[in-house]
Request: fold
Amino acid sequence: MKKAALFFISIFLMGWATAQQVYYSQPDNSDGRNLNFEIVGKIDGNYLIYKNIRNDYAMSIYNSSMDQLDKVDLKMIPERTLSVDFITYPHYTWMVYQFQKKNILYCMAAKLDSGAKLLQDPIVLDTTQIRFLADKKIYTLIHSEDKKQIMLFKMEKVNNFFNFTTLLFDDSMQLHHISKINSGFQEKKYIFSDFLISNRGNMVFTAGNRSSSRDFIENLQVVMKAPYTDSFHIMSINLGGRFLDEVKPKIDNMNMNYLLNSFYYTKKRGNTEGMFTAVISERNNQLITETFAKISDSLRNTIKSKGSDKTALNDYFIRNVVLKNDGGFLLTAEDFYSQSRNSPWNRWDYLYGSPYFYSPYSYYSPFSYYSPFYFNYYGSPYGFYGDDVRYYYNNILVLSLDSTGKYEWTNVIGKSQYDDQTDNYLSYALMITGGQLHFIFNENNRRSYLLSDRSINGDGDIARVPPMHNLDRGYQFMPRYAKQVSASEMIVPCIYRNIICFARIQF
Reply:
C-alpha cells in the first residue's frame, strides 16, 4: 500500500496528537529586528538558538517550556567573522566559523555542549591566504545525512575557471583526505546546484551549461567525487533538446541513488511543461532512469492562481524532496512571484540575475533563495534596494513519484498569501511526523495572521488539522524560517512587538 510506503528515512517517526501545543519564549529587548539567528537544534533536552548582532555572538539556551535558561557569549568568535554554521548531534554541536585576520582567512571548529560550553579548544580546519579584504565566506560546509561525513570545500577562480579544494572530515573533525582539482567549469558559463555528500563520503552536484546569462540549462552534467580520489567523475545527461530550470539534487542513502529534479521546458523561455527526474546509482555512477513527466491539463487548471492553463506552472519553484523507502519520493513546489513598481516580475531575472534579485546560483550569497544559508537568518523587512515590492506565495503542489520518476498521485494544498515589503511571514514550513507531511503556514484572518496546519498522507489525502492550542494573537509567526528539531517538535521564530521570539510546537 502507498500509505505503508510513506516512511521517511531521515527521522524516526512517532505518533502525534490531534492538536498541537505551542510554547513561547519571553521577549528579550536585545533581540530586535536587526538580529541574525540560527535555530541550532535540541541537545540533551535543551534547545539552542544562535544569535548575532553586529560583532556580538551568543547562544540562548531554552528548556521545553521555552524559558531561557542561559545566554552564553561566544567569546571564541572574533570580530569580522564572515559566517557561522552548525552540525548538531544529540549531545553536542560543532560550530564552524570563518574569519579574516590580516590577509589570512581562517576556518575554525568549536565543539559545544548543551549549555554552549566548550568541550575542547577550537581547532583550525584550514586557512587561505587572500589578497583583499574579504566580505563573504570562502569555505562551504556540507555534511551527510547521518552526519558522519563532513566536507569543507572552496572554489577559487583562476583565469575564469574554478579550482576546487575539498577537505573530508569525520564526526570528530579528524581530517581524512584533501583533494585539489582543477575543473573546466567557467565562471560565467556554468551554474551549479547544491553540493551534497552521501553517508559513504561521495560528493555530488550538477553543473549546467547555458548559452547566455539569461538562458535555461541546455546541457547538464552530473559531477561525482569518491571520498579518496583526486578527480571528478562527470556524466552528461541527454536532455533531448529540452531545457531545465534550477536543478535540485537529493541523495537516497537507503537505496544508494542520486535523484535529480527540475522543471523542464521545450523551448527557451517557454512555458513549464512538467518535471524532469533522473536517478543515478551511487554504486557505479551509472544512469538508472531519466524521465520527462508532463503535467496534465486538468492539474494545470487546478493549481493556477492567475493566467491561463498553459502558464499555470511558470511561477512554481521546487521547495522539498522527501524520500520514501521504496526508492520513490514526494516533491513539493510552491507558487511564488513578486511585483514591483520599478521592475516587473520575471522568472529568468529571478533565477539568473538582475539588479533586483540575487541569483540562486550564486552559491556564496547568503541571500540566495535556494542557497542552504538563506533560511539561517532573518531577512531585511524592507526588500531589495528599498523598492516597493509585493510578494505572493500561493498554492503548494505535492507530487508523489515512484523510483522511475513516474507520477503516482498529485494534489494541491490551497493557500493565498501576499505581503508588502517583506515575505518573512509568508510561505510555509514542512514538518514530517506520524507518517504524514504537515504544511505549517499563516492564513489571513481578519487582518491578522493565524497559523494553520494542513497534513497529507501516503495516499495523497489532505486534512485540515484542528487549531493549535495556546495560539497567542500577539505573536506573528515566520514559518519559512522554522526548523524541525526532533520527530515531533518544531521551533518557529516569531515577532512580538518588534522583538524576535521563538515558539516550540509539540506535535
Residues 297-303 form the longest helix (7 residues).
